[in-house]
Amino acid sequence: METTRIHIFDTTLRDGEQVPGCKLNTEQKIEIALALEKLGVDIIEAGFPISSPGDFQSVEAICKAVKSPAVCGLSRAVEKDIEVAAQALKYAARPRIHTGIGTSDSHIRYKFNSTREEILERAVKAVKLAKSFVEDVEFYAEDAGRTDNEFLARVIEAVLKAGATVLNIPDTTGYCLPEEYGAKIRYLHENVPGIHKAILATHCHNDLGLATANSIAGVQNGARQIECTINGIGERAGNCSLEEVVMILRQHPYLNKDTGINTQLLYATSQLVSDRMGVVVQPNKAIVGANAFAHSSGIHQDGVIKERETYEIINPLDVGVDHSKIVLTARSGRAAIAYRAKHLGVNLSKDELDHVYQRFLEVADRKKEVEDNDLLEIVESIEIKNPSAV
Ligand code: KIV
Ligand code: ZN
């Protein structure tokens, strides 16, 4: 079976930067855009040019700075937005305008005080206008997750005819279940004539912790672009996390989906975004969290010391983390102590290990984590016959 290339659309600098307190200056945005280019993303959503002069400038500067990824600017289905987005993108080697409108009944009624027919008309008009500036036009049906499938299919068919090259189906509120979201993508595949001429995209938010699962369900049902952010940052509970979807597709090769991401740069890119945005990565975050490759219980440590694969499904080197961590806590066993002592140059005999272990437990019950210097102190306090490095 042929492998499908999944396009990675990174929106760290647009949806990610919408997080309160995450505002970046142009210089920092360029730095992150260049890191995303190195990482191998296919599209960088650089900003929302009409939103502020600063954002306009940043989009323009990113267009000048990056070479290989397409650079995308967001707009509403509003004439001025689209014109300004086109202006901001004029230096891009591969410009893309991302325009769209809310299609759920809730958005139509409360946000627009409008009707389905009017919304459909506005969507088509926006795509046609964007198309007059650039060839690559992506349309988003905001709140598609809660949009009636039949109406969504009508909108998608109409914007496809108007020239949209990418069709974004956002689960804006993170409401869908994976099966439901996958079925929505499949429904569009099966019911929109000519859909194969465009790329269907997932854009999933994480309000119920399902953004990654929904994005994967989307690609399993025919989507060929995933919209995501580094560290999963974004509005409210965030967006689908880039590092998670990329590693899921890599670790499950039988899905036959490939990305162009250089996974060994994932950890460094995560650290860069966390640092520049001032948002700490939660320690238990999959792939890039401080504990993603840390083992603290005796049973797990014993397994990992014997063979890493017993408790790790990813080689840390594959994501740019140089080694797994054996953390010494009151739950650790003799195997972990002997292992850590050996790394410090101390080979413990069975008897010595028994002694060190008893002393270690006293210390470990007082401290959250026993550090290397604590272990060395314990070793020094006990008569070791052949302490090569003590
Ligand atoms: O979540 C969303 O619907 C969006 C669109 C603007 C693409 O971010
Ligand atoms: Zn979004």
Concise account of the structure shown:
With 390 residues, the chain is α/β, with parallel strands linked by helices. The protein contains 14 helices and 12 strands. It starts with a strand and ends in a 9-residue tail after the last helix.
Strand composition percent? 5-15%
Helicity level, as a percent range? 40-55%
Cα-atom radius of gyration: 25 Å
- CATH topology name of the largest domain, in short, is TIM Barrel
Distance between the termini: 58 Å
Biggest β-sheet strands, sense, barrel: 8 strands, parallel, barrel
Number of helices: 14
In what order do the strands lie side by side in the largest sheet? 2-3-4-5-6-7-8-9
Instruction: State mean pLDDT (0 to 100 scale).
Output: 96
